[in-house]
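User: I've been trying to design a sequence by hand for this structure and keep getting stuck. Would you show me what you'd pick, starting by listing the structure so we're on the same page?

Assistant: Good idea, let's start from the same input. This is the structure you sent:
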């Protein structure tokens, strides 16, 4: 893509100087082209001012590396902003990494003045998180206390091995339950499992999945009870639930205000306002238990469009709120506490699985990618390793940032040297909104933040993006297409 085809917002992202940058864009808005152009821009010196001026006067547009007919003239004795070894671009798939690297290769190969960079460009780390972690671990295996470099354990094997461990461990629980030593386990199995215990195995697998997204799965599971089975955690989650309910009600109210029929609008808004004016969850529960109901539509009131909108809002927003408010706070908290004994044996089995899997991997010097990521993070917790890595990489760029896991976020925080460039793609706004809330809101620190929104998602994400525009105390540049 020629520079002249980029929007102002895209050019600002391409030529972003130092600091943290978040680029938020809808599907098909040219995010890969922006990231590719940014890599090229970092690797070459600035254009000679006279050349740039004469080229624009002659052609009416800025010079672009895609112009294969006109060789560029760069400023003499001015170094590029970065060498290839000082860049790291992290993606999630080999295909995405290959495509990005190939695009930059083509741009560099277009002109003699930049062909000389091709050899050193192969040293650049445009790669996947998994590949980056594997190399980081192997380069520093002695610092991690490993006797040799590690290999990747086949994911299919890991899956089968875990299933075998889960079956072996649950069978031991069954034996104890038959002896009357595990009453909670026996009760859980009676209530939730069919004869092949699929629900039980599924529950333990979900526990393992959550654990392996954390920085340290074994530490996460070991500390689970102390961290999550507490009154403090329950109250925190309950406050989140109440905020969630109020958010649903506010969204419903905004929808009801758009009815064509004012009488129907006033009727539905009155119901929502009754709950929003309550000062607490229990007060809202009191209204529902006292007989407050979402009003039936009076005959002859509301257009067909209003009715369709109303039914959608009722199913998606009002229905869940009424369901949440069916019990008071004390009853809800007690209901959650009743699940703790069942959760505990799931945690215990999952922890045993993780420990046995880790022992197996250590003995064979072969690890699954989640464990390699955990080892990579441990390596970066070693000062000598961290200093070496931060001295090497001056610019860190991330594609599909909304898909990062907790451990990948921790890795980025370690790599962050003040120049972290994130590509946030809101192709699926509902999913991305949920993921991004944990990732972006003002975690970054630095000189500036840029949020560039492109594509059809703009209207849907505008309000969301306003909360992530810049770090506290920093200069804000908020960009919408």
């Amino acid at each position: 893509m020629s520079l002249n085809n980029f929007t102002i917002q895209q050019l600002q992202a391409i030529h972003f100087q130092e600091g943290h940058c978040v680029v938020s864009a809808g599907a098909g808005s040219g995010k890969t082209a922006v990231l590719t152009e940014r890599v090229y821009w970092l690797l070459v010196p600035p254009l000679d001012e006279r050349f740039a001026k004469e080229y624009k006067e002659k052609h009416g547009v800025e010079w672009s590396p895609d112009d294969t007919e006109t060789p560029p003239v760069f400023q003499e004795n001015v170094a590029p902003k970065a060498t290839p070894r000082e860049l790291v671009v992290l993606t999630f798939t080999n295909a995405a990494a290959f495509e990005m690297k190939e695009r930059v290769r083509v741009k560099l190969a277009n002109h003699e003045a930049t062909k000389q960079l091709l050899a050193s460009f192969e040293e650049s780390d445009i790669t996947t998180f998994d590949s980056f972690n594997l190399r980081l671990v192997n380069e520093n295996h002695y610092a991690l206390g490993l006797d040799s470099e590690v290999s990747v354990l086949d994911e299919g094997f890991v899956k089968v091995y875990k299933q075998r461990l889960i079956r072996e461990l649950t069978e031991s629980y069954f034996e104890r339950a038959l002896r009357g030593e595990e009453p909670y386990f026996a009760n859980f199995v009676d209530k939730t499992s069919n004869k092949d215990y699929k629900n039980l195995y599924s529950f333990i697998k979900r526990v393992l999945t959550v654990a392996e997204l954390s920085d340290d799965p074994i530490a996460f599971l070991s500390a689970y009870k102390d961290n999550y089975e507490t009154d403090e955690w329950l109250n925190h989650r309950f406050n989140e639930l109440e905020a969630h309910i109020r958010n649903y009600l506010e969204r419903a109210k905004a929808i009801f205000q758009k009815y064509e029929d004012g009488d129907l609008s006033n009727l539905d808004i009155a119901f929502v306002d009754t709950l929003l004016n309550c000062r607490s969850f229990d007060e809202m529960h009191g209204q529902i238990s006292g007989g407050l109901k979402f009003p039936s539509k009076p005959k002859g009131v509301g257009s067909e469009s209003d009715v369709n909108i109303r039914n959608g809002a009722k199913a998606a927003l009002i229905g869940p709120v009424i369901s949440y408010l069916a019990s008071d706070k004390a009853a809800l908290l007690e209901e959650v506490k009743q699940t703790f004994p069942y959760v505990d044996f799931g945690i215990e089995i999952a922890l045993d699985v993780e420990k046995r899997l880790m022992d197996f991997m250590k003995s064979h010097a072969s690890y699954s990618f989640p464990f390699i990521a955990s080892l990579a993070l441990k390596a970066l917790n070693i000062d000598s390793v961290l200093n070496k890595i931060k001295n090497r990489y001056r610019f860190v760029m991330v594609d599909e940032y909304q898909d990062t896991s907790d451990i990948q976020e921790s890795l980025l925080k370690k790599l962050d040297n003040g120049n972290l460039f994130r590509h946030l793609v809101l192709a699926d706004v509902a999913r991305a909104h949920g993921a991004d809330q944990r990732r972006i809101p003002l975690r970054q620190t630095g000189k500036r933040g840029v949020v560039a929104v492109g594509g059809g998602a703009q209207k849907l994400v505008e309000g969301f993006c306003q909360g992530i525009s810049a770090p506290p105390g920093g200069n804000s540049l908020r960009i919408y297409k």
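That's my pick for every position. To get oriented when you compare it with your attempt: Residues 169 and 257 are 56 Å apart (CA to CA). The mean pLDDT is 79.
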